[in-house]
Model the fold of this input.
Amino acid sequence: MKTVIINGSPRKEGNTAKMCNAFAEGVIAENQDATIEIFNLYDFDFKGCKSCFACKLKGAPTYGRCAVKDAISPILDKALEADILVLASPIYLMDVSGEYKSFLERLLFPLASYEAGYKSLATNRMRVSTIYTMNVPKEMCPDQVLSTTEYFIGHILREPRRICAYNTYQFRDYSKYKVEVFDEEQKRRYRDDNFPTELKEAFELGKEMAATAK
Done:
């Protein structure tokens, strides 16, 4: 069983990475033979969709596939072959990161055909999870924005299971930064009280998905 985790955060040891790792640990707890691959998008030199439409060209070998060849081309292939696909991003400006959005363009648009009913060309409807981390409380989560993207993911692949970490602790040392709108002590208490629970939720979802993917 193959699990591919896409981390759309520039921080390899940040909150998003920790949630991804917790999910992976849940998969392994359920299936010790599972293969886990984690890709940090900021490690790769790539761009989003170039609107070349080679993926829509009649009779072309690129129909339904991204024709651009660059650093993430092998990752796109791995993602589409996975049994479990995790798509993770921090929230920037009330939306996912730019690298994450660019990856989704390259992954999903080729599979979104202009055939009747906007037929999905995906041959593998793997289990999908979305993970988001954000520096705001739950009531400020940009749910409508995320739901629109997830609707598209669901149409092309499978409706994703979402899990979030809210009100994240951003800085190792708040005293070094000019921060007036957040209370560091309040942030620390929230992290200590809630982040372990959020990590546990990621672990349990990984375990559950591994069980159903067997």
Summary: The first strand starts at residue 2 and ends at 7. Helices lie at 15-30, 73-81, 98-108, 143-156, 184-213. Residues 184-213 form the longest helix (30 residues). The chain is about 35% helix and 15% strand.
